[in-house]
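# nightly structure sweep
# worker-07 picked up a monomer target from the shared queue
# config: single-sequence mode, recycle default, output format = structure tokens
# input follows
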Amino acid sequence: MEQERSLEPQLWHACAGSMVQIPTVHSKVFYFAQGHTEHAHAPPDFHAPRVPPLVLCRVVAVKFLADAETDDLNAKIRLLPLPENDLDLENDTVVDLTPPKPAYFVKTLKNNDVNKGAGFSVPRRWAEKNFPPLDVTAKCPYQTLIVKDIRGKTWKFRHIRGTPRRHMLTTGWSTFVEQKKLIAGDSIVFLRYESGDLYVGVRRTKGGGGDTARRVTVEAVTEAVERAACGLAFEVVYYPQASTPAFCVKAADVRAAMRIKWCSGMRFKMIFEAEGFSRMTTGTVSTVQVVDPIRWPNSPWRLLEVVWDKPELVVQKVKRVSPWLVELVSDMPADHLPPFSHRKKIQLPHLSHGVPSAKIPLIATMNPQDAQTELITNWRAKVVESSTKVDSEKSRSKQQIVEDNELAFVVTKSLSDAKRSRSTEGSGESGSGSIITTVAGKPSTITLNMRSLSYPNDDLSSFCEFLSSRLPPLDLSGCRAEDAIDFLRMQQASGDVEALVGRLSAACEVFGIKPQDNPFHNVAVTAYLKAAKEMTQETECILVFSCNDKDVDETLFIETISKKLQEREVTPLIYNLSWRKDIDTEIFHRFSVGIMVLSHSYTCTRQSMDHLVAILEHWKAKNLVIIPIYFKVTLLDICGLEGRFEAAFLQYLNSAQPGSVQKWKAALAEIASMDGHEWTKETQDMLAEEVVRNACLKLYLKNSKNLVRILALLNHSQPSDADIVGIWGMAGIGKTSIAREIFGILAPRYDVCYFLQDFYLMCQKKGLRQIRDDFFSKVFGEDKLSISAYDLKPSFMRDWFHNKTIFVVLDDVSNARDAEAVVGGFGWFSHGHRIILTSRRKQVLVQCKVKESYEIQKLCETESFRLCKQFLNGESVVISELISCSSGIPLALQVLGSSVSKQPINNMKEHLQRLRRNPPTQIQKAFRRSFDGIDENEKNIFLDLACFFRGESKDHVVQLLDACGFLTYLGICDLIDESLISLVDNRIEVPVPFQDIGRYIVHEEDEDPCGRSRLWDSNDIVDVLTNNSGTEAIEGIFLNASDLTCELSPTVFDKMYKLRLLKFYCSTSGNQCMLSVPQGLNTLPDELRLLHWENYPLKYLPQKFNPENLVEVNMPYSYMEMLWEGKKNLEKLKKINLSHSRNLTDILMLSEALNLEYIDLEGCTSLVDISASIPRCGKLVSLNMKDCSRLRSLPSMVDLTSLKLLNVSGCLELEEIQDLAPNLKELYLAGTAIRELPLSIENLAELTTLDLENCKSLQQLPFGIKISKSIVKLKLFGCTSLGLISMGAPLLSHFRLRKRKRLSDSSTHKPRKTAIKGLSRPPLPKFSLHSS
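# output follows
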């Protein structure tokens, strides 16, 4: 997994601009899904329940990033949804520890700044203050500046001081402009840090910095919105230069804006950025109306429709704005609008009658004066005293305060460091009790005189009992914050810890504990409470419940489980049933996986056994996963009811409770049927590790994105007939696990259920007849049918099961006919019947008449990382590589991760490489079934793809392998249907585990590399080449020759008769392929289809070589002077690349290549005349002669009817061009010496790009160009001999009209701006016209 490189926040913000506000970590924001969808190129289709218009979130992390290619800035923000009642915004103050911004300046680029050969003017004062000083005594002061860009790349600029005292950047600036693709309107940011380091950044013009919609995919937005709607943690990526506002807005700003009763006629002002500076504009609210009341009801996003006082100043031509982006100028009377903020009320302990009035301390979430007003207004309470906790702080020792603050830091860090997904389900309201926080950095206390007071005595009793069990025993007056926090941890699973703190705090006050000594007022407890409140809302939590009656071994074992869960970033909820009167049913909404520690303590009370029955009932109803651990008991104790279980149940039976005892026995029988573990003291660490890993894997499956989406699909499906659903995907992707999970969730809804796992293997093992009989025995509810299943007619089946609901899952179906045979055909299934089929082949599902099919997606990097954490620690150096080589396949991740985790950390990486060379049996077995089921044509194609062409263009691969005699297109289609490969952007994608197994299959062909069909490993290839041991078995060689020096024999290829594919290349830029053949080559194999040899060292190809089968020649930077002497058969040659072969003088033999489609001769500086070398046929598509500086003439191209691209830019001596190809689309003539264009250019109806930059001898343009409607891009920079008069009025008016049209359509399309400034001042030395 490639690591993202974060930028320094100061550098990022300076490049982004002062108007870009990214929320700080730990601050509260409102996430607007409606605004996020504006980033995507199409409206997302949400599967989640109705998405709220705004979601209150906590900012967990922020990464400041930049695009690797364009330097476009973006921020990756991780958000954690908060419950709706967590609107404590007044005290949401986040300390900003960001260092001061460095000195910087911003300048918007003009046309003359981005012209070729131009320089860059730096403000004098800034340059003199921040650049290294120049030697002003020199005649022409200059120096070389070393500047880094935001990616860390170093640039060198020549800094001179001209006259009068003008600072310029000259040499190096044009290169920077060209590589950064800067245009007029972009801004440059120069920064200087205190260390003296200089940085340069790019601030793209709005909408000009790249296609945001291309980067922000619909899938990414959909996933974020769905997770936000479900209360799960999610990530968003925000591009500040996109033409849509920020959709993560500071919560306080939104709340403040929505307190205003907006109405039409209100005046406002708004700040926007133009040319690197903030500007103010004013306007009037014309309408206050929700944009999309159906999809986003009550949404404040773009609520205000506005009219600007000076529309020309508003760059984006915005017609609607959100209220928090504007500042109210005049307050007008307004109609009442629906409120968008929720009023937070103080919540107090539950009141009951009969208890005398008492003083209750309340630590409030607001200013003391506001709290008093709130209490008097909404509660029957009288404020008798109000104070802050300043005096109490003074009364405490300095050492005690320091210890409490340190404890607060440790508690908060331990709870918040783990990054977890959340769910608001079951999070619990604040309930009764005080809400604890700080005001202005200090706790604020308001003492109330209530008419009545009640608190559960059990809370205080439990706390006192807990203190008495401490070592040494404690009482209320002697306990500290650590004791209170330990007790709260034990109660955390109840989900109402906040209310518990309020009750215990009040109870301590009633019993005479002074506020300064009250442990529940301590700052450490406050910090724990806030962190615990967030933690208990996690969906990635596992419940660990027991009935621990102070057993030391059991306590230590549960602590071990809790620790190992936290190591995997999973929240443990410890829930002790011992002596608990009522069970918290809401807790079952917050977890889906539980670990049950079953001991004799369950028999101590009837309540514990009743709780056990309640847990099992929820287990059945909610399809929960429970993993039992038999602690100091055995299965015989439980099943046979021996020992203490037997004695306890006999006692309860004698107490006249036979009904309850029967329920308890049934519950224990259910537990005994589960896969459990027996505890022993010697193996408890290993047992805890195994149980935790198993539980986490179950939790991972429960939270699987694939599972959630399939369930959403099934729940919304309302077919009129039988519902036949298909699930397909590659081997190891998790189809069986997901199908079984779906079966467990949906089965209770149906009368008859049937799940057949491993259909393919069962057919081979049992046969179709036996499986069919088993199926019908199951659906009829009989052990053995009286008649054969083959005699049952579909009409009888339809009538028999017409009034029953049936649910059938057939897993891993490989043949549609077999599936139909087993269930007696799909025709008898009717409404209310559901069939789910899983298969590796989508075509099988189509043949089974599946109405809806779902492809199981590979794990994303986040999901892969989470699964890796079940085996490896976060600091492991192999996690990134493990994720990469698993390609998001769960089976590969689990098998490889499990194997690697058993190795010493220093040996993990090497062990992983060994596993890749020799894949584990479990992965091979899953892959082999798919591979063995395809024919020889497809097997050969797959092996070529796995060994050589992973990531290559499909069209390129088809062209090469078709020439090898394969049916490549059909083979690729079959491989895709078999889920062995996929296409991503028309490129071949082979999962790395499948690639490894494909290469392993080739490796197993022969122990000696010379006996294998395909070679890709550099060590094996060098061994074969240097020892001259090649054989006819070898069909392909792909050698990465980077940093490799090797000397080859003249006869090195003599025995490789069947060699089809030969590629010597350098994967690292700047390196050369140093393969030398000092004695020349006798020949090359005649079977070659691909000849790719970078830096080919000889002057000619071997004369004996017969290239009749060659399809592609790719030999850039070669030392060749010509290909061959004489003629050769080049009938199959379609592509040739000899670029930068500076010694090449003769390509006459290409005239024989009548099927040639692509010619690349860029940088062949010795070529002079090619008029007789270009094949005169209609198949040539692209001809690139760029920078052939000595080229003087081109042939007539009238016959080249397929030619779409011609590039002769940089051909300095080219003065004349004959007739052009009739269907040209792109013509590049920049820097040539042509004086006029051929008249045939007027007939090019498809010409879209014409580049005439720096054609200094060009006198005029043909009339047809002046009125052309097809040209989209016209470059005329540096055409110094071409005046305005020769351009003609039609051309100028045409481009002015096109520009006005673009501006009017700017809301939907934002092309690069047309640079036409200065056209009214003839003669114009440099200008450019672009139309798009």
